[in-house]
Design a protein that fits this description.
The complex is a heterodimer of chains A (about 280) and B (about 350). By secondary structure, chain A is α/β, with parallel strands linked by helices. Helices cover about 35% and strands about 25% of the residues of chain A. Chain A contains eight helices and nine strands. In chain A, the strands form two sheets. A six-stranded mixed beta sheet of chain A has the order 5-6-7-3-8-9, sandwiched between helices. A three-stranded antiparallel beta sheet of chain A has the order 2-1-4, covered by helices on one side. The two termini of chain A are about 20 Å apart. Chain B has helices at about 35-40, 50-60, 60-75, 85-105, 115-140, 145-150, 155-180, 195-215, 220-235, 255-260, 265-275, 275-280, 290-300, 315-340, and one strand spanning about 45. Chain B is about 60% helix and about 0% strand. In chain B, helix 3 (about 60-75) crosses helix 7 (about 155-180) and helix 8 packs parallel to helix 14. The chains are: A alpha/beta (about 280), B mainly alpha (about 350). Chains A and B meet through strand 1, strand 2, helix 2, strand 4 and strand 5 of A and helix 1, strand 1, helix 3 and helix 6 of B. Strand 4 (about 95-100) of chain A pairs antiparallel with strand 1 of chain B.
């Protein structure tokens, strides 16, 4: 919500200002990897060739307003997940800054919790880590387990879960709390049809409560259905972005060699905003 | 709505030359973005809270820290058939190995009364610090998925790891109590002093663990080197000999003093003095200095082992407590601030 004095137009909730994110990857290959070559490197005062810098996000700026549902599209490795982690404050920016109105919550595929612990422990620890009190955790516990639908497996270590089950449980844990800014990173890709329907409802519900939603999905239909705005990333930079979701998606499909989406009727987007 | 998932194809399906950002002008404000953010009171999402705010956030997550430590401790032995029994078996086997080597094979008491209880106490106490150091130096790289998934004060992780070792220590202390009583030491009120001594050691370990977690979060070289440093420290901390009475250090008071006030020797000394009566009454300086009696001690005869009390004290027992408190406070304050300074960088890996 707008806490500032200005009242012209919607209030921004996330501002990304010339953001750069650099990963350092160790052991990315290079020399022969023997002790002798390592010694020579130290003597010659060279940097380790196996330390590679990956410039994952290269100068991105945008302003997201309250009530926006933003779809982020782009090919594998274009920096979508990195961007979300940077907005959530989980990855530090190399240069530039991300401003947000509150703590952003990120629901991701890779949000691995503690694999050698039982589902039950994971639920409790996840809730506590998100800052719930033990009492709140106790109150929410049953509904989280019920929603995830993992049933008796809740007593088993999470490493015994199938990918879909683990993802369902993680989503259930993370969505148990109301968040001001919600980011969903392919969190629903491996759920079964039943769970996808359930979680779609939950997302719509969360979006009603949350000010802003980010959605990364390779399923463009899902983006088109849920988002009023789209950002197309290419190699860590913004290729196109705007409120004209169908046009950008079509351009994206054309560029990646796909056919334009066939739409049964002129697209009706409940969230369409005229920019 | 038609459900059609598109595969995006691998990298390289788009020609490499065209990255032409097309910014929709309406989505960018006219003013600098930083000013816009300030006007709406948005805060940098990777901002570091103030040190006191951070301490309060940490306190708010205390249930998480304790839950994390307990759960990890439970999970540690889930793959083992004997399960939690290993919590007791590990210290027992440790004690058995040291009994075999030092008690039977080497048969060396080096002028220490009740050497076996002396040795095992030292090993168990040092083990707490040793394990805390090694595990906390690896906690940040090991927890990278968790760090990148959930926002919480990162100091929860090293503190949690020290608590895991503390829970292990409780098991070790139960085993130790049995061994010490079986070795003929009496149960006295002095035993209660072991509790504040261990509490101080735990605070010291948390402080050092925070520092080590930050050092270990950077280059991996550090956590490779650390085990050697800790082992050197083990040999210098009077675990297997008594710093104050060993004859080879008799004429080097400065070295003796420095060895005795090092944190590991301090905490080991405090616990030994509380649960081992033979140590407490033999502590140098605890009786008025007497040349003759001290010389009798240095003859090395078994009957005069406790005459070390008549020798010059290097560090009086009260001073040992002050050193213990000092090390704990310094380690905690330095470690906390040092860890907090890098709070926003731990996700980088």
């Amino acid at each position: 919500m707008a806490s500032g004095p200005a009242s012209d137009g919607p209030a921004p909730t996330v501002i990304v200002d010339d953001l750069h994110v650099v990963y350092r990857v160790y052991g990315a290959g290079g020399d022969k990897g023997t002790a002798a070559t390592a010694l020579m490197r130290v003597i010659k005062r060279q940097r380790r060739p196996s330390v590679r810098e990956v410039h994952a996000i290269r100068g991105i700026s945008f302003v997201i307003n309250h009530g926006d549902a933003v779809g982020i599209i782009g090919r594998n490795g274009s920096g979508k997940s990195t961007l979300l982690q940077a907005i959530a404050g989980l990855l530090p920016p190399e240069q530039g800054c991300v401003y947000s109105s509150g703590q952003a919550a990120l629901l991701g595929v890779n949000a691995a919790l503690l694999d050698d612990l039982t589902g039950e422990r994971n639920v409790v620890l996840g809730c506590l880590a998100m800052g719930m009190t033990p009492q709140e955790t106790k109150d929410r516990y049953q509904s989280i387990v019920d929603f995830s639908g993992v049933g008796n497996f809740i007593d088993y270590p999470m490493r015994t879960y199938s990918t879909g089950m683990a993802q369902r449980l993680r989503f259930s844990i993370a969505s148990a709390k109301n968040h001001e800014i919600l980011m969903i990173d392919e969190a629903l890709a491996t759920g079964d049809a039943n769970f996808r329907a359930k979680s779609h409802e939950r997302i719509v519900e969360l979006r009603g409560e949350a000010g802003t939603v980010f959605l990364v999905a390779h399923n463009l239909a899902e983006i088109e259905a849920s988002c009023n705005r789209v950002i197309w990333l290419e190699k860590g930079q913004i290729m196109r972005q705007g409120y004209d979701v169908p046009a950008i998606i079509d351009a994206y499909l054309e560029a990646t060699g796909g056919e334009p989406r066939k739409r049964d009727k002129p697209h009706q987007n409940e969230h369409s905003a005229t920019a | 709505m038609k459900e059609r998932t598109r595969d995006q194809g691998g990298p390289g399906t788009l020609t490499d030359d065209l990255v032409v950002p097309e910014i929709d002008a309406s989505t960018l404000a006219d003013e600098p973005l930083a000013d816009l953010a300030a006007r709406y009171r948005l805060r940098p999402s990777a901002a570091r809270p103030g040190v006191f705010v951070y301490a309060r956030q940490l306190w708010d997550r205390r249930h998480f820290i304790v839950g994390f430590a307990t759960a990890r401790n439970v999970a540690m032995y889930t793959e083992a058939r004997l399960g939690q029994l290993w919590q007791v078996l590990t210290p027992l086997l440790n004690a058995a190995v040291y009994y075999l080597i030092f008690g039977i094979i080497l048969d060396t008491s080096r002028g220490v009364p009740n050497f076996l209880a002396f040795l095992i106490t030292g090993i168990f106490i040092f083990n707490f610090t040793q394990r805390a150091f090694i595990t906390t130096s690896r906690v940040m790289p090991d927890s990278l998925p968790l760090i990148r998934a959930l926002p919480f004060p990162r100091a929860c992780l090293p503190i949690g790891y020290v608590l895991i070792e503390l829970e292990q220590l409780v098991m070790s202390m139960i085993v130790l109590t049995v061994i010490v009583l079986a070795s003929g030491e009496p149960l006295t009120w002095y035993w209660l002093l072991a509790l504040p001594a261990l509490a101080l050691q735990a605070v010291f370990n948390i402080g050092m663990g925070l520092s080590l977690a930050r050092l270990g979060a950077g280059a991996d070289d550090f956590s490779q080197l650390l085990p050697f440093l800790v082992r050197t420290w083990l040999y210098a901390s009077g675990v297997m000999f008594s710093i104050q009475t060993i004859s080879s250090l008799r004429h080097h008071p400065t070295i003796t003093y420095l060895l005795q006030v090092n944190p590991a020797a301090v905490y080991i000394g405090l616990v030994r003095n509380s649960i081992l009566q033979s140590q407490r009454i033999g502590w140098p300086g605890s009786k008025p200095y007497s040349v003759g009696n001290c010389a009798l001690y240095h003859t090395g005869k078994k009957a005069y082992l406790e005459y070390s009390a008549y020798c010059h004290g290097v560090v009086p027992m009260n001073a040992l407590w002050l050193w213990g408190i000092g090390w704990a406070i310094v380690a905690l304050v330095v470690g906390f601030v040092f860890f907090w300074q890098a709070e926003t960088r731990y996700g980088r890996g």
